[in-house]
Write a structure and sequence with these properties.
Layout (H helix, E strand, L loop, with lengths): L12 H21 L3 H8 L3 H8 L8 H15 L3
Helix pairs in contact: 1-4, 2-3, 2-4
């Protein structure tokens, strides 16, 4: 069995770094939009804990389709009204 890193089995350093970068971008965009993890989760159809794990780079195996949906909702929320 390989190394474990918060549920990321056998992940190499570059993958872990990439997950952290994605999380940082989502976190910063959500904060700029002025919304909570709970609100973003609600409009994107996921639980707040999913947003939290994504922002911390700890969500291994998230489908690209789900990530795309979260990002699309985040972009919509960030638009000036």
């Amino acid at each position: 069995m390989g190394k474990r890193f918060d549920g990321l089995r056998d992940a190499d350093a570059m993958t872990l770094h990439g997950l952290m970068l994605i999380g940082q971008v989502v976190y910063e965009a959500r904060r700029r939009a002025g919304v909570t993890q709970r609100h973003l989760g609600r409009v994107a159809g996921v639980h707040q804990s999913t947003i939290s794990r994504l922002e911390r780079g700890r969500l291994n195996g998230m489908r690209l389709k789900l990530l795309a949906r979260i990002l699309a909702h985040l972009e919509r929320l960030a638009r000036p009204r």
